[in-house]
Structure prediction request, 338 residues.
Amino acid sequence: MAETDFQSEKQVVLDFYSELDKAAPDALGAVMETFCAPDLDWRGFHPFHEQTGPGTVAESFWVPLRQALTSMQRRLDVFMAGRNAIEGDDGVWVVSMGHLMGLFDAPWLGIPPTGKMVLLRYCAFHKVEDGRITAEAMYFDIPHLMMQAGLQPFPAQTAAHMVQPGPLTHDGLLFDVQSPEEGEKTLAAINFMVQDIKTWTGGNSEPLEDELRRSWTEDMIWWGPAGIGATYTIERYAKQHSGPFRAGFEKRIFNGHVAKVAEGHYGGFFGWPNLTLTPTGGFMGMPATGKPGDMRVIDIYRREGDKLAENWIFIDLLHFWNQQGLDVLGRIPLMKTP
Prediction:
């Protein structure tokens, strides 16, 4: 097979998911040790942060989650792979995005169970080397789960709260070999958008909508994290997220990405952290703090033509606001439930 088809790396992750998802909680550590390197470098959202080794990840993350969300199913919306486009690390990363669905039967992170079906939004980047997973970024929207449990972790968001679907085109599961040329086009569209944002200084006279139109289709969809929400069309995205986001911060520092890949019409990246921002007040209904805070982000994109059409975003808002002095998980006992 061609070196660029990534089929063997994809199969490692698919086999890992198959065994992980059907294993009993007390067998999760053994599954992790079978498929992951002994020094697995794992990154997860607050309160998990960085973990080393498959046994540690199983014990701290997977076992408690599986005990809380029983009868769990993995519902994939995007599955792709690619060679890292970040200079200095040309390893192959396999990416999946979707929901972990289960019955919320026991507390998790202090979130009270509902006994009802819930979905945990997630996206994971797996670095595969010599048939094993050596590094993983596993990002998940805990506030989204909190809201399904009747909690309100943040003030009213500017965009819509909903269970987020997969791609409009229903073609995000790239199990088969894809055209390298299409992946290159997707990577170029992502790079253009990122570079165009980086040129913004806050003093531009150009309307925000006109800037966005260089990178996005008119009917673009931004599937944002809970606390911000989802928004549709360039005009509403500018009003409901991009504009408030730019107005709410100063001293925006771009720290770069750990991995960036594209395959077919899909691509994405993650950072640790991607951005360091200082709140000036107002964003997500919060006051100014004057404290720099880190944003750990995964972005997944669908390209249409030469522009981006859909974007799924995972931001570690619990970590960001914790750096500002707000312990959202610690406030759970004070939050009202129905």
User: Anything to note?
Assistant: The chain has two domains: 7-148, 180-334. The helical segments are 7-22, 28-35, 54-68, 142-148, 180-198, 208-213, 234-247, 317-323. The first helix runs from residue 7 to 22. The longest strand covers residues 69-83.
